[in-house]
## 1
Amino acid sequence: MNKIIKFLIGMTAVAMLGVGGSQAATPKNTFVMAKDIADIITMDPAEVFELTTGEIIANVYDRIMMFEPEDLQTLVGGVAESWEVSNQGKTITFKIRSGLKFHSGNPVRAEDVAWSLQRVVKLNKTPAFIITQFGWNADNVDGLVKSLDDRTFSVTITEEFSPGLVLNALSAGVASVVDKKLVMSNEKDGDLGYEWLKSNSAGSGAYSLKTWKANEIVTLEANAGYRHGAPGMQRVILRHVAEPSSQRLLLEKGDIDMARNLTPDQVKGVQGNADIAIDGYPKGTIVYMAANAGHPILGKDKVVQAMRHLVDYESMANSFLAGQFVVHQAFWPGGLWGALEDTPYTQDVETAKKLLQEAGHGDGFEMTIHTLTNSPFPEIAQAVQANLAKGGIKANIVTLEGKTLWPKYRAREHDIILARWSPDYVDPHSNADAFAHNPDNRPEAKLTGVLAWRNAWADESSNMLAVKARNELDLAKREKQYLELQAMLQKKGPYVIMFQQNEQVARNKGLKGFVSGSNFDLVFYRNVTKQ
Amino acid sequence: MGLTSASSGQTAGSGLAPPSVLVSIIGVMVSLTLTFIGLTAITFVISRVMPVDPVLAIVGDRASDEVYQQVYLQLGLDKPIYIQYLRYLGQLAEGDLGTSIMTAQPVIDDILRFFPATLELATVATLLGIFVGVPAGVFAAVHQGRWPDHIVRVVALLGYSAPIFWLGLVALLIFYANLGWVAGPGRLDVFYDGIVEPKSGILLLDAALADEWDIFHNALSHLILPASILGTFALAYIARMTRSFMLDQLSQEYILTARVKGIPERQVIWRHAFRNVLVQLITIIGLTYASLLEGSVLTETVFSWPGIGQYITHSLFNNDMNAVLGGTIVVGVCFVGINMLSDLLYRLVDPRVR
């Protein structure tokens, strides 16, 4: 009863005194960012495929191979100290670093590493394809991925793949090393700890997961014993703020250190603020249009080529996209190994009209563009609509939520799709396999994860080159083949590739060391410091 | 929800109190059961005709067909819809609301986390609406056609018609960003998060019970602005309705008689006219409170308030059916509960209903 009386007195007292604002600055040892984190559905690295969790697990788990924040261009060993390729490129034997420990205090053993990969294959969640493409399945993975002693393990692939590609794939989230002892102590009904790891962590990375309250907050706690030394910040907090305007206000008031989802207008708005800095990070996300090759008109190469000439890329990049997207016209993002940086297309209405004439559609035609509801897709669709009209093409726009749009796309029910794509791991094969390689174009093949299949497009020369580059052992030759493949798809195929994302992050000027790499899961917090 | 008539029908049981109470209870239980079956059935059917794929919400758009089919079967989507629904009801009968796809948590845990946040917000907003809206409505009615009436009507119109999203952002800009009188979006400053054990989930109460007055102060500072914005909406509606009910009563002959008898004006207004308005007002306040408890998605979005409205909306967009159905049941319980409470209050304030 006393407490209730105190509560009432307290309420009255506070109401009488006025409530006042919150604490002005974030604590010195805590990095607080505002982000829309509603996409988080799991923290299990065997299943994580969302943007927010991709970056969280990059900070919580060490992977077999890694791109480190100090040099995002060079692939180095994560838990792996060294590796040797044998058996004509089909077996890689890894030696892991000594003295590594999980957050639990358990030592990191080769057995943990092998088990982590086996677990991904056996659970077979969405991102598992990144490693099951090597010929691994639930029945054979124990024999093909195995620990040889406490510090040595080997992986053997059964398909023809370049070892370079295998190493790159082992830097993806699915190659996160999980604490077998801890996870198995939480196993239920033979689920390999799946239920438990959805909302817990068992890694050896710079941070451990302290709390995750869905649609509210994620808190990470520093791992003082991390192999690169204790992280700069004791705590990292990702606070769910869905509304960009609210993110801006919080940043300007100093209640957060970083806003991750500001719109171009808001970025412009905070640019004059002396306490706030804006950083741009080129990301791997590509914005593209794709034509359904099963469509009687859009299936013609000349029609798609005409569309490439009709789009006014520069005008969009310089106006409403305002620094958040830059012109890019190849399927592999710029700035990465193997990327084709050429941008051969600018708006050329005359050439486009000529091509449409040659295709037998000089009088134009009508079709529908399906796109996402979130910015900048409706804006881009409207600009493209106006561009295409110059060639006599009447485009109707239908905007849909992703969960409604993707089933249509996967069922080949679109005319033109305007969407985005980002690599699953940092190797050109990741995108080449989606854009250029469709081994079975029959509807019943249901290769729904492959963009070329979704667009009912298959091309013998493109397929051959994609496979050749995938298997090539020589790095220089491999790079050349990918450049050739990208150039080929700039001229034929269903795609009009338009932009590459440039992530704009607004931060308090006193905060330094945040690194956001090209891929969605190459975001690092461990070097962050605050003045 | 049809409960008002069900329970008020018991006045017919003259003299035989126990059977009448029993009949009334049975009536309420039947009505409750039918309400929930209807509620869950409609929500379930809507979820199945929506062009949103619940499998893709889990596996993502890049999943292979093999992974897709695996989850499709796990969710039981290969079964006819009535089987799926009956299974859900069976699960529900065991008190299991299932697990949310989007949060990976049991729906009941999610609701216990999100609902108190909305309850806290809606309660404060409704109290604001009552304490300001009712006197304002009475004041306007008493001064009908004069400037106090015009002011109340304009304020009520603005409060009712101004987009709450815009109002929220403007209020944040003024009171948080410029004046610094209140805290910004969120329920609590991040450095206070996790200090107080969530016993009731209502932060003000939990902080007070834990003797954490700094946290109490911080929570109140976060609450005051969204509650005021939401309260503006409640206030506008309650003030308009109070004014209208009062005008109706003030034109009755018994009021004229009271005035002729020389009863002081204050008594005429508050003891005679206002008492007769109370029954209607209880309905209005009950409905306002229930609609705020459904969750005010826009207010919750602008103020990053982790409430039930955001939870249901987000789940709906992702076809997270366990979460949507769980949330719908909570909203249904609120409506039914508030209806029953209104019934009880009628009996207290209106002797004719007893």
## 2
Amino acid sequence: MSVEINVTGEVVTVYLSGELDHHTAKEMRETIDAAIELNMPTLVILDFKDITFMDSSGIGLVMGRYRLLQKTGADLHITETPPNIYKVFRLSGIEKLAKLESR
Amino acid sequence: MIKNKFTMTLQSRSFNESFVRATVAAFVLQLDPTIEEISDIKTAVSEAVTNCIVHAYKEKLGNIYITAEIYDNNTLKIKIRDKGCGIENISKAMEPLFTTVGGERAGLGFAVMQSFMDTIKVRSVVGKGTTVYLTKKISQRFNVNG
């Protein structure tokens, strides 16, 4: 599991990799939230290209970041989602909260 | 008729979430599943084990008991049992987006298990524990090598 953050202007892009479950979500959450607080972006992009596994803990992670960004009115995008991860996202109806793109 | 079976007991440590789903996935390989079927099974198992850790034992240590069986009609049966707090209202617990812990849990664990497996059955006694039974029939693909 690793998290890489790239900041360009008002956009924070978060490159997630490895397995996203209840065990790994906490560290990912802390890293993402620190980057949001530091940079106050208007758009946060969560890149799932290198996520190899995700259960509903990933939905919780996205919902939590959505709530955090609502405070400042920033947008949230989920991009490069592999098919198996996309299937979990679709089940949750998360696309009502964040723009969801498959790989 | 049962063709193969394994059982294991492990502690309710969150590290074990990945260990259990990887083990079950490796066991299922003998049925020649598709990548999608493996992914579905791993996701459902991960949800069930996470429920044991987060809800049944409430982040305290307890044992999780896993049994997986393969039947000769290409069906996988998985049993995931804990001796934790039990569920007062199972149908409520299974409603999508219902969660008792709040925070960052989405309340979608049972919804994922229902969607990704063929059947799910939950038995629970408050104060005694919960058992989740999952089944999935693995598609039999045409084998060009006979």
